[in-house]
Amino acid sequence: MKEVSNDIISLLEKKYSEPFWVVFKNLEFHKDNGCLESLIDLFALSIGLNKESKLHGFSLQFNRLKWLEEIRNNKKNQFINYCDYKWIVALPNIVKLDEIPANYGFQVVEDSGLKTIIHPSFLNPKDINRPLMALLIRNFVENKNCLLLNEYNRGYRDANELQLINK
User: Fold this and answer.
1) 132 neighbors 79 (Cβ within 8 angstroms)
2) Helices and strands: H and E segment counts in the chain
3) What confidence tens digit (pLDDT) does each residue in 19-57 have?
4) Strand (E) positions, the chain?
């Protein structure tokens, strides 16, 4: 299932890509009781020069039973209330149209990418508080550091291979 989730995240990262978007994924935080809680699967923040910044929140659905449980328990809604737009992104046949909450957008994964079925309504979100802002910044920096380390390691391997070839 993690592989499916990563595939959907990759599609979203491709659609909401730099330089006009910043993507925050796998956001988690420690509650006061010390338990780890997942916030939302993915946030995308528009940062275009001529646009206001808008925060889109995405809930990824790839399992029908987990989707039904999420509807019953109303999970993740606390933090998605900071979003200007809310989205459900699902594999085919996981989410039924009549189950999409009011004002949410709905995208379905297809062979060619993501297909928008329902566009979300603009919401009146809560202002982002400092703990959430800190979490977003930390997530962004950690993801960038990971990318930089991967590129460094790739360059190091390539340089070693060139030395072996040139000997």
Assistant:
1) yes
2) 4, 6
3) 889 888 877 665 555 554 555 788 898 987 766 789 999
4) 21-30, 36-46, 55-61, 85-90, 105-110, 113-118
Place of tokens 């006009």: 20
Task: Give how far the C-alpha of residue 118 lies from the chain's centroid of Cα atoms, to the nearest Å.
Answer: 18
Looking at every residue in the chain, the average pLDDT score rounds to 81
Q: How far is CA 88 from the centre of its chain?
A: 11
Q: What is the β-pairing status of strands 105-110 and 85-90?
A: parallel
What are residue 73's DSSP bridge partners?
none
Query: With DSSP H G I counted as helix, E B as strand and the rest as coil, what are the percentages for the chain, rounded to 5?
Result: 40, 30, 30
State the average pLDDT over residues 132-160.
73
Q: What angle (nearest 5°) sits at the alpha carbon of residue 46, between those of residues 50 and 151?
A: 115
Looking up tokens 């592989």 gives 3
